[in-house]
Write a structure and sequence with these properties.
Strand order of the largest sheet: 3-2-1-9-10-11
Structural class: alpha/beta
Number of helices: 3
Low-confidence stretches: none
Largest sheet: 6 strands, mixed
CATH class: Alpha Beta
Oligomer: single chain
CATH superfamily: Metallo-dependent phosphatases
Radius of gyration: 14 Å
Mean pLDDT: 94
Shape: globular
CATH architecture: 4-Layer Sandwich
Helix content: 10-25%
Number of domains: 1
Order of helices and strands: EHEHEEEHEEEEEE
Length: about 170
């Protein structure tokens, strides 16, 4: 079983990421979906595992890519911050991009609101924000992704003060 921590929108505040890394225990990989604000090296050091990271709209002078495609188990994923796809207005542009690229998972940040949607063979997810959450209750959030030996995925949206299983 592979265990992947998915985070976004830390905005230069790593205290909650440090807490999450202690709480989750050993992970195999980490994905950060942007707005790291200069903390790329610190995040990689803290994680102590391979980290896939993309630039967000607040990563002005970053050398990070704006998006990337990666393989996760038997799935292909697009990582993006999401602002170029107008995610605050919905997922339609993400769905179109996923179809065009042949990916079956899209991960994004930007809205600071956790989201997990599975529909017609496409998973769209947003871990929310560890630093500046905007959903009701304003609780910092992240997603744990699990990949079993057959390459199948499972997800858990987690909150700083509790955790609930979604899929």
């Amino acid at each position: 079983m592979m265990k992947i921590l998915i985070v976004s929108d830390t905005h230069g505040r790593l205290t909650n990421l440090e807490k999450v890394l202690k709480r989750t225990g050993p992970i195999d990989r980490m994905i950060h979906l942007g707005d790291v604000e200069g903390d790329e090296a610190n995040i990689r050091t803290m994680a102590r595992v391979p980290v896939d990271m993309v630039a967000g709209n607040n990563d002005y002078f970053s050398a990070l890519p704006s998006e990337m495609e990666i393989d996760l188990g038997k799935h292909k994923a697009l990582l993006t911050h999401g602002h170029h796809y107008f995610v605050s207005m919905g997922h339609e542009m993400l769905r179109e991009e996923a179809k065009k690229r042949g990916v079956d998972i899209v991960m994004y940040g930007h809205t600071h609101r956790p989201c997990l949607e599975r529909n017609k063979g496409l998973t769209i997810l947003n871990p929310g924000s560890l630093s500046l959450p905007r959903q009701e209750g304003h609780e910092p959030s992240w997603i744990m992704m699990y990949i079993d030996d057959k390459g199948e995925t499972d997800y858990n949206i987690c909150y700083m003060n509790n955790s609930r299983r979604i899929f």
